[in-house]
Amino acid sequence: MKTVIRAATIEDIPQVVTLEEQWEASNETIGLRASAKESLVSFVGHCFFVATDPGSIVGFVYARSKRNDGSMSAIFNDGDEYLELEALYVVPERRSMGIGKQLIEAILDCGNLHGIRHISAFSSTRDVDRVLRFYRSCGFESWGLQVFRSGRKSPAS
């Protein structure tokens, strides 16, 4: 099967919403909430791409352009514009086939087209090791680490 990466269109939104709902239901990402249709529409025509096989979308990525207001100064200069990945998803049965890397390349090309040379990504995945290996294989570097744990239950009185 030949996967094609192309710019997302308004007609793709219902399929992307369905994939985001499936992603949310899978519970593989902590706190993920599927985007509303209206939110996704705002990305169309910008840095929003889908991976398609004949007849269906098997992955997507979208990013928002931001300007460093000082909060990213450890990695970008103040005032630098950068793309922040909002979502990157590939259906489980099509992972490890290079589709995610192709979607990242599409985002990088979009950034370059607009003179943006920086990109950042955040993930709240439960499988940190796998996701970190993926991003590193795409040339990303780690900047920080945030972890959590739930408190202990109070002993019964």
At CATH's second level, what is the architecture? 3-Layer(aba) Sandwich
> What share of the residues lie within helices?
25-40%
How many helices? 4
Low-confidence stretches are: none
**What count of structural domains?**
1
**Mean pLDDT over all positions:** 90
| N-C termini distance | 61 Å
Rounded to an integer, what's the Rg over CA atoms? 17 Å
Could you name the CATH topology? Aminopeptidase
Shape: globular
For the report, how would you describe the main beta sheet? Answer: 5 strands, mixed
Please give the order of strands in the largest beta sheet. Answer: 1-2-3-4-5
Q: Which CATH first-tier class would you pick?
A: Alpha Beta
Number of distinct beta strands = 5
The CATH superfamily label reads Gcn5-related N-acetyltransferase (GNAT)
Helix and strand sequence:
EHHEEEHEH
Strand content: 15-25%
Structural class: alpha+beta
Which labels suit this protein?
157 residues, alpha+beta, Aminopeptidase, five-stranded mixed beta sheet, 4 helices
